[in-house]
Design brief:
By secondary structure, this protein is mainly alpha-helical. Helix content is 63%, strand content 6%. It has six helices and four strands. Strand 1 and strand 2 form a beta hairpin. Helix 3 runs antiparallel to helix 4.
Length: 183
Amino acid sequence: MNITTPTATSRPALLSLAGGLSLFIAFIFVQSLFFKFTNSYETQFIFGNLAGWSGFTWFGAYGGYLIGTAELIAAVLLFTRFHGVGAVMAIGIMTGAIFFHLFTPLGIVMPEFNAAGQMIGTDGGLLFGMACLIWLSAVVLVVRDSRQPQGFVYYFLHRFLNRLPQKLQGHSGGTDTENGGAV
């Protein structure tokens, strides 16, 4: 049995896994739009801190809208023939989120605010945990897409790899003098 090619009986399981992971990613992305597009206190805290840390003051005002728009595009793409692009976008967005949680003053545990903007507690790291789960889910989708000939990632990788010089692909392009034959 070829491991890279699913059997006829395993295809529905793989399709449902991909569908479930796509639904999970899209649900979280779309749900977060309510915070980002309404400029909630949580969004102001996150993007305000990142703006102060980076020196890009515009990021405090527009970062939520920018990231939210990217998440919306990725969520929609996950249900089109370009689902591989949506998964790659999700990896990129979540790589940024994980990086900023780990390597900036933002931190892993985010505050929660009431309607008056007063901090009422923390999320206990839930936002960071969700970013990690989305990242892992998107990686599974990209790997799956890279193994299917009709997948965008498969097409892109094979198109890119075919343009690499022969030596980088592991072929000498000449003759094999040890074996006396052409390669």
